[in-house]
Amino acid sequence: MNGILKRKEFLNKISVLDLQKMSDLPIFFDEKKMDLEFRGDFQFIKKSERSLEEMRPYLSPYGKCPEGTKNPNAAKGPDPVYRVWRRAHLKQDDKKIKAVGLRYDLTLIPPGKIGDEFVKTAGHYHLPYPEAYEVLLGQAYFLIQSESAVFLVEAGPGEKFIIPPGFGHNTINVFNEPLLMANWISEKAEYDYEPYKNLHGASYYFLKNNDLIDIIKNPNYDSFPEIKKIRTREYSEFGIFKNLPLYSLVNTLDKLKFLNHPEEFKGEWRNW
Ligand SMILES: [Fe+2]
User: Fold this and answer.
1) Which terminal CB of the chain, N or C, has fewer other CB atoms within 10 Å?
2) What is the pLDDT of residues 18-53, one digit of tens each?
3) Is the bond preceding residue 128 a cis peptide, omega within 30 degrees?
4) Domain range list for the chain
């Protein structure tokens, strides 16, 4: 009996992943619960969950649905679809962060699909503010779009991606593992979900077709700029590097000034 208990205890322990080194914060990922544990003074943190019901307007009605329906209102999937923790910073850093008007958030997207679509975030614009992302766990497909361009960026652990000013974005988890991302954003940034909601998602859907990923145009859009794939890179001009957790910039927040002053954004996006 004792042996069984010890084994259970052991199995529970290994399902919890230590993300301290990766994130520079005392956070742990509980794979069984598909949730995060915060083992520090995260006094200002606010958790929210996006339910399957809330996600329905953003889903594709296309593709083969194993449940025998093409109706997104009936598609099954993880519920909640994804979780967000806003102001996931330590109390000791609160003054510094507030002084520069920024916010640090985390987003967890489980693996799986809703109907035929890979699990994704709803998608939004927060014009004109950019947003700096980092993958802490898993692999992300960042899909960013404007009226004239659509870009897909694949990023793995430690890799960074800046959503440039003027683009809407959503993230798709097409891989068979949980995806955890961190981001810095201006406190002034507002979230506009309406364009994604009214058009039933982003300009392209990502559907599971056995081992293939079918990328399907969303017919609710008037124009379909071709998807271009771009690589992640380091942003030395902002002190953002692959092996440096985004949170550690809490000690050099002046480098993130561009998040509140997009006119000072001098990234490779500038000429688009
Ligand atoms: Fe965003």
Assistant:
1) N
2) 999 999 999 999 999 999 999 999 999 999 999 999
3) yes
4) 41-264
